Amino acid sequence: FLPPSKSSWDAAYERELETFQDTGDAGEIWFGEESMVRIIRWLEKQKVPLESSVLDIGTGNGVLLIELAKSGYTNLTGIDYSPSAIQLSEKIREKEGMSHIKLKVEDFLAPSAELSGFEICIDKGTFDAISLNPENAVGKRKQYVRSVCSVLKPEGFFLITSCNWTKEELLNEFGEGFEILEELPTPKFCFGGRIGNSVTALVFQRK
């Protein structure tokens, strides 16, 4: 279950910040290591140039950006609306010596003008969290889709990992403005004789 409010996100990342300062532990990786490997493998398979501009939406502790940098990507930006998440990711960036990673406090539902022209946008769980917002979740989801359209270049790639939405539901949410390129393989689970995916990972291309 995802923390519903901004203040609870801030509190969670403040705790992770303290833990990192005490122990050097960067905290939880959303959807686990394999979700990062899946994204990086896809970018490599597509031969996405290493200098392509990449935006990590809701970067949290910024560990995905660190892994992208280690894989050779050089034009990386992470945003989060929690200032303590950005503080934590800045500390981890310093520890890893990855000073070229750009980090900003941004509310993606009201992105600033300089957030534009990205060739790749990545979301691991941020759309899920926005969808659980008790206040006007439908409006916020629509605004999220508009925001992705505004920050991503035409024909840019949008990679989304979700545990709340099926492929069909995501196709419906992002049908306007995007076309699906492929579904990435995710771990399957079996429950009551039915096989399903607990996580959906899709690649869209902006029209």
From TrEMBL:
<protein>
    <submittedName>
        <fullName>EFMT2 methyltransferase</fullName>
    </submittedName>
</protein>
<dbReference type="Pfam" id="PF13847">
    <property type="entry name" value="Methyltransf_31"/>
</dbReference>
<keyword id="KW-0949">S-adenosyl-L-methionine</keyword>
<dbReference type="GO" id="GO:0032259">
    <property type="term" value="P:methylation"/>
</dbReference>
<feature type="domain" description="Methyltransferase">
    <location>
        <begin position="53"/>
        <end position="180"/>
    </location>
</feature>
<dbReference type="InterPro" id="IPR025714">
    <property type="entry name" value="Methyltranfer_dom"/>
</dbReference>
<dbReference type="GO" id="GO:0016279">
    <property type="term" value="F:protein-lysine N-methyltransferase activity"/>
</dbReference>
<keyword id="KW-0539">Nucleus</keyword>
<dbReference type="GO" id="GO:0005737">
    <property type="term" value="C:cytoplasm"/>
</dbReference>
<keyword id="KW-0489">Methyltransferase</keyword>
<keyword id="KW-0808">Transferase</keyword>
<dbReference type="InterPro" id="IPR026635">
    <property type="entry name" value="Efm4/METTL10"/>
</dbReference>
<dbReference type="InterPro" id="IPR029063">
    <property type="entry name" value="SAM-dependent_MTases_sf"/>
</dbReference>
<keyword id="KW-0963">Cytoplasm</keyword>
